[in-house]
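Changelog note: in this version the structure field was regenerated for every chain. One regenerated record is shown below for reference.
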Amino acid sequence: MGQSQSSDEEVELAQIQELYTAFMQECPSGALHLHEFRKIFGITSTSEEECLYVERIFRSFDKNRDNVIDFMEFVAAVHLVLRGKLEDKLKWSFKVYDRDDNGKLDRSEVKHIIKIIYKLKQTDSDMSPNEVCDRIFELVDSNKDGQISLAEFMEGAKRDEWLMQQLKLDVNASGWFNEHWKKKKS
C-alpha cells in the first residue's frame, strides 16, 4: 500500500515537472501575463465585455494580486480546472460571477456573464440570456430577495443538472490543456 502511494506521489511530481517545463516554455519570465492567458484560452475577441470577463477569470487565479500568474498560481489553476472538486469549481464560478465582490449575485451580474458566455460559445439556445437569468433566479433564489448567496448558488447547482450547466463556468481550459500536453509529448 505504501508503495502505491509513493508511486502516485512520483507521478504527481513528474507531472509537476512537466508542467513547469511547459510553463517556462510559454512564459520564460516565470510569469503568465493577461495577454498570454487570453492566448492560452483562445480568446481573440476584442469585445470590451469579453475582455473584462477573461480579465476577471485571470484575476481569480492571481491570488497575490501582482497582475501576473506565477507558477504556483498556475499549478493551483490547472489543478482546479482538471482535478478540482465540483464544490471548488462552483465557488470559483461564483467568485467570477460576483463582479462587485459583495458575496451576492444580483440579476445584472448573472445576466452579464450569461451574455458573455453566449457570445464566447456562440450558443444556439432556445432561451435568451434574460430568460436563462429569470429561470436561474426562479430555481436558486430560495429566499426571493433578488440576490443569490454562495449557499443558494451551490445548492441550486447541485440540485439541477440544467442549472449546473448554466452556473458552472466552462472556459474549456481542460480541453486546451489536454490538447497542449498531447502536442508537447508527441
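Spot check on this record: The beta strands are 31-32, 69-70, 104-106, 147-149. The radius of gyration is 18 Å.
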